[in-house]
What does this fold into?
Amino acid sequence: MKKNWLRMLSVMMCFLLCFGLMAGCGNGGGEEQGDGTEAKTELVVSMNGDVKSLDPMKNWQVASYHFYWTIYERLIYLNEETGEYEPELATSWEVSEDGTEYTFHLREGVKWHDGSDFGANDVKYTIERGIELGTGNYPSVKSVEVIDNLTVKVILENANSIFLDKQWTGDCCVIKEGTDEELAQAPMGTGPFKFVEWVSGDHITIEAFDEYWGEQSGTEKITFKIMPEANARLMALQAGDLDAAALEAAGISSATSDENLTILSTPSIRVNYLGFNHKDEIMGNELVRKAISHAIDKEAIVTAQLEGQGITIKSLVPAAKVGFYDGFEGYDYDVEKAKELLAEAGYPDGFECTLSVSAGTQDLCAQVIQANLKDVGITLTINTMEAAAFNEYMNSGQAQLFVSGRSAGQADAYVNILHSDRIAEGNNKFNYSDAELDAMIEKTWETSGEERNEIYADIQTKINDEALILPLYSNTLFLGVQKDLQDMKCDAEGCHDFRNAHF
Amino acid sequence: MLKYIVKRFLLLIPVIIGVSALVFFIMALAPGDPALTIIGTDAKPEAVEALREELGLNDPIIVQYGNYMWDLLHGDLGESYGSGKPVIEEYFSRFPNTFKLTVWSMFVAVLIAVPIGIISAVKQYSLIDNVGMVAALAGLSIPNFWLGLLLIMGFALHLGLLPSGGADAPFATVLPAITIGTGLAANICRMTRSSMLETVRQDYIRTARAKGVNSKKVISKHALRNALIPIVTIVCMDFGVTLAGAATTEVVFSWPGIGRLTIDAINSQDRPLAIGCLIMTAIMISICNTIMDILYSVVDPRIRLSGGGKKS
It folds into this structure.
């Protein structure tokens, strides 16, 4: 009897041993690939979420920008160091005196990934398709004229400097004339890398385009692995299965202590704010808004919500954007002052109100605000809602107080959510309507350069002085890369620029 | 038997109607506008309205459901709002991964659970029984996401033996299969033990032992065979449920399976994809149940399958 059980146990041990051996075999194959010379020209990097479509005009997920920038090119790009626009597919451009005509001179000798030549017709097609699909990247455009094969003129209905600003944003990619539905599955551009395959939910692969007009990094192939779980990304990076991965605040201490990794960080352009409903009887009162602004401890929010990995902010426009201004005092955390302002507003004993928040995004932030407001006598109820329901509720203008965030291309997109025209659209969730502010926002569309920046400064000062919105914090974005990976960039939008990355 | 199988498949029709109606109305009545989710909250109202019209979202819900069912009748599950690909293509692009993971998970589960369950029953209240049952309880209690991360930390990060995620790398199935398999093993193990305990106390086992049949033969031939029905039931049911996708494990191991596809579709309000995935899941579970019934007759020849149901 005993012998039989021993036999059974030994069979089980054999099975386990086989399993272990299989595991060992896996390791050998993996290492051989990793150590080969070929691997040095191949990058494996992560994407935080699955993409729905590869068509740049139909999909605006930031995750998709990682490969848009490698496959496609734009007319111009913004040199983040100088703040100036520089040539990409357009070598130069002129603006007519009245600001309604933009003439772009295009680069010669540029090839599409199918080997055909790039020209003015492609730019015309891109802009017209963009307008038809309502991408918002071509504001005020009336028509596009092809002057010759390498010159294209864009005519605007009225002067709108935002048009040029839009041309360098992540999804403003130039596409080939005639391409349409196929872009969703097989994108084609003029960039340094061409599309190879997309396995839904698993990975996207691109490879170097031999006929690219510019300099190439030497990297031959990039695989974007779709990895939604932050801890799994960190461990894959530490195990060497990934060459670059976006990390979250919770994993940073572990990543920084790993000597094989370099951590790149930048403050995000996402501005998180406390929104007030200006039509609400209580929140419509400027003194109440100021009292709440003084009652909130933004540092405590950064500590609780982001484990300290972020910055507190005073302005609605992020520091990385042209037009940013924070030369005003802002609202310090001052409980006594808040109480005084509440008493002055006619609420010496506080009041009851409701704060709406999207589940799983700003919960801790909402709890800090609740505790802070309790200290000044305000009883806050937190209304946590599922993301889609929260958006619908917020857009309907019913939320009394809400925590939300915004990340956008230009300064304009941050401040124009207060324009009264946008109440009906659901974008002005604050129900704020003021002819003076509307006029200031409209003026920014007709001006450019320093003149426009001054107006932006005035708008941001007005938002602060009247406590129209309370900007709270911006998180820090982290990109972990293997130590010997060079020339890797991570921008404030969370876009990882792999165009020049190489070992 | 053929008649029985045909009947089982005909029964799928009311199941599909029920599942599709339930999911369709729940998703249609849930707050949030799919058009707004697709196009982004910054879009112009005209663009949102145009998209709503294009997707048929402005029709009354009952008309939308009618249109959906009419397409379904023609074998068309529609196209995903997000990718624009046919739902059936999206589903079957992920199905091989989920099937592979399910098969290996069940292999791990059965390999662990059945021997431990048998030993626990034969040696009731022995050390091995107690350890086995505590391990089964632990297997049930440990959340998959935590076990998955621990396994990645141990086998991928520290030992460097196995890949940390994805479905392409060699042996990428091992860690997720162990993660799911250990959870499933716990249930199967307890079921094997109780079923075996009941069988080994039967008179015919005592008779076999009294006749002098050796212990191994008594357990494997007389006891186990008769204890198999509940084990087959739970294995087949677990197989069907795992085929629906193991979203948590798939997220941890970046495994492109049905679970992630379904959850992502629900979160992004991709109605055709979500409903399509759930209908396909209902079909898969029905197929597993049919296979289970066929296996009953293989395991226990007294069970006959007929169009009228099971007869013993």
